[in-house]
Amino acid sequence: MRFFLLCSLLGLLGACEHPTQSSQTEYSSQPPLYTYDVEQRIADLGIELPEVGSPMANYVNAQRVGNLLFLAGKGPRRADGTFVTGKVGADLDVEAAYEAARLTAINQLAVLKATLGDLNRVKRIVKVMGMVNAAPEFEQHPEVINGFSDLMVEVFGERGKHTRAAVGMGSLPRNIACEIDMIVEIVD
Amino acid sequence: MRFFLLCSLLGLLGACEHPTQSSQTEYSSQPPLYTYDVEQRIADLGIELPEVGSPMANYVNAQRVGNLLFLAGKGPRRADGTFVTGKVGADLDVEAAYEAARLTAINQLAVLKATLGDLNRVKRIVKVMGMVNAAPEFEQHPEVINGFSDLMVEVFGERGKHTRAAVGMGSLPRNIACEIDMIVEIVD
Amino acid sequence: MRFFLLCSLLGLLGACEHPTQSSQTEYSSQPPLYTYDVEQRIADLGIELPEVGSPMANYVNAQRVGNLLFLAGKGPRRADGTFVTGKVGADLDVEAAYEAARLTAINQLAVLKATLGDLNRVKRIVKVMGMVNAAPEFEQHPEVINGFSDLMVEVFGERGKHTRAAVGMGSLPRNIACEIDMIVEIVD
Fold first, then answer.
1. Rounded Cα–Cα distance for residues B155 and B119 (Å)
2. pLDDT per residue over B66-89, tens digit each?
3. Is C22 exposed, middle or buried (CB count within 10 Å of its CB: 0-12, 13-18, 19+)?
4. Please, what are the averages of pLDDT over each run of 10 residues along chain C (188 residues)?
5. Apex B165 CA angle, A47 and A170, nearest 5
6. Per residue of chain A (188 residues), what is the pLDDT tens digit?
7. For residue range B18-68, what is the model confidence (pLDDT) as tens digits?
8. Burial (Cβ within 10 Å: 0-12, 13-18, ≥19) of residue A117
9. Contact C157/C120 with Cβ under 8 angstroms?
10. Order of strands across the sheet with C62-65?
11. Is A126–C63 a contact, with Cβ atoms under 8 angstroms apart?
12. Per the CB < 8 Å rule, is B127 touching A70?
């Protein structure tokens, strides 16, 4: 208030800036989230992001509300369009399932890239639901879903660390080895 | 600031409005989300929304945080209070399970109606978790959950398109054929 | 605006306060959410919160976005670090599984305490995903997850009532009896 009055009394019409406006300017020139380029990091890891397939039904790959981005469940789709299939603990061992979860992460990165344009806009991976198509006696779900989580941290660093659940499903579409969805915080 | 000072110097005590107030007025007179009446659309589809049952335990049907509305999981409850039950792929085929998912959608619409008062307040269906009570070898979960997704798009149009996961559970309460929860963005 | 001008014209440099500042003061002195102390309530229930273990993989126990707090899935971990294990409906009955879900709730309270510092900051339990490691024919998932929900209401009262899904998984890590994650609304 004293600031306003001082400006007013002195008649310095051009010299005073509204403080809120200047702080908005600072906000729009905020520093980048990363000390490195996320997309270069992905290239350095030898990862090529695949094309994102259109959902075959009445749903979409990503939906934004505020700064939260909700991603649909995805599976371990190879570059040729086929999927890694089978029950983990019966048809696949943990190592193969880890790779399937990592492949699923690459597919989700492709969805993020297609949605955001620039992966440097990912502020934080918030929540991951890691669903393993597992034999009833299987017990190593965390070791499988680590294939997804590890890649997120390789790519996004500390910002890639998320909350998660790693659980065993009774069955999955087309017998895919895993299905993983997630929630991401983004910036404009 | 110049706006404030101009008012101040001219002494136009009654002529100046605070700019924030006028933009708030614009917000409250925002246009409707739909070019049609959502509740009339439901009636046109021949759908009668059932009564919403009270949860039998220490939980609630819907919880709002900001403009996000979280809905509890619901099942395929018929108007007479009974449920569609059985393992999909063993006791039910895909067509019967599609209808069960559609029936579940009708139950969630009833929860939305009871919570919001007016279904035209649904800005967007954000996320759907479609859980099928499936036989271990079942692979057509997307075709089942389409019964839910298709109805949401019939009712809400483009605003009904959501992200989703369609997965197979090992078992469900009372052996219901599916359980589906969702997150919805709403307006006041 | 008139308020600003009145101050300006009278030259009462020290007498006028910016109205926004005073409303911020009111906000920071908002009344407490509870009519009782939540942490005393927990002690009165005879519950001792355990140490929170560090996640063994690239994930975290809790992640905040705005006023939403997302918690990772937790299981029925005893104070000695062992877990309640077994398939519900085969190795465990409903009563034992109810206690396992209650124990899981205690572990999530410990995560909340470690994250928030003060459990009186919990504004609302929003969403609970209750996943039971169940035999394929098991049907009483709600009665199991009530062990979690009941404790939340004992501790947080009406603010503890949440939306939830109670479902049966095909398998869970280390064969734990249940895994439960949740979303919580908090205040600063």
1. 10
2. 999 999 999 999 999 999 999 999
3. exposed
4. 45 40 48 95 97 82 97 96 97 98 98 97 98 98 98 97 98 98 97
5. 100
6. 444 444 444 444 434 444 433 434 444 567 899 999 999 999 999 999 998 977 768 889 999 999 999 999 999 999 999 999 999 999 999 999 999 999 999 999 999 999 999 999 999 999 999 999 999 999 999 999 999 999 999 999 999 999 999 999 999 999 999 999 999 999 99
7. 443 333 444 456 789 999 999 999 999 999 999 897 776 888 999 999 999
8. exposed
9. no
10. C62-65, C68-74, C178-186, C122-133, C163-169
11. yes
12. yes
Sheet harboring B62-65: ordered strands across?
B62-65, B68-74, B178-186, B122-133, B163-169
Token pair 């605003």 is found at B159
Of C2, C132, C163, nearest to B59 by CB-CB distance is C163
A180 half-sphere exposure, CB direction, 13 A CA radius:
34
Please report which helix (H) or strand (E) contains residue B103, including its range.
helix B94-116
The bridge status of strand C62-65 relative to strand C68-74 is antiparallel
CA distance C4 to B7: 10
The answer for residues whose C-beta is within 8 angstroms of residue B144's C-beta and 6 or more apart is B88, B94, B97, B98, B100, B101, B130, B132, B166, B178
Residue B18 has a pLDDT of: 41
Show the tokens assigned to A184.
């991401």
pTM for this model (two decimals): 0.86
| Contacts with C159 (C-beta within 8 Å, 6 or more apart), sequence order | C33, C34, C122, C123, C124, C125
Nearest to C59 by CA among C68, C70, C75, C50: C70
Q: Which pLDDT score is estimated for C30?
A: 72
Token reading at C156: 């947080």
Nearest to C57 among A1, A142, A167 (CB): A142
Report the complex ipTM: 0.84
- The per-residue pLDDT for range B87-141, each reduced to its tens digit, is 999 999 999 999 999 999 999 999 999 999 999 999 999 999 999 999 999 999 9
B118-147 burial code (b ≥16 CB/10 A, e <16): ebbbbbbbbbbbbbbbbbbebbbbbbbbbb
| Record: contact A73-B165, CB cut-off 8 A | yes
Report whether C115 contacts C61 (CB < 8 A). Answer: yes
> Distance (Å, rounded) from C-alpha B174 to C-alpha B75?
10
φ, ψ for residue B35, nearest 5 deg: -90, 0
Chain A positions with Cβ closer than 8 Å to C: 1-2, 4-5, 8-9, 66-68, 89, 124, 126-128, 132, 134-142, 145-146, 149-150, 152-153, 160-171, 183, 185
Nearest CA to C68 among C166, C156, C145, C182? Answer: C182
The answer to whether A84 touches A96, Cβ cutoff 8 Å, is yes
- Separation between Cα atoms, residue B4 and residue B9, nearest integer Å: 9
How far lies A173's CA from each of A26, A101, A133, B131, C17, in Å?
48, 15, 9, 11, 63
Distance CA A134, CA C186 (A): 35
Residue C170, classed as helix, strand or coil, is coil
- Nearest CA among B145, B138, B72, B59 for reference residue B107: B72
CB distance A121 to A7 below 8 Å: no
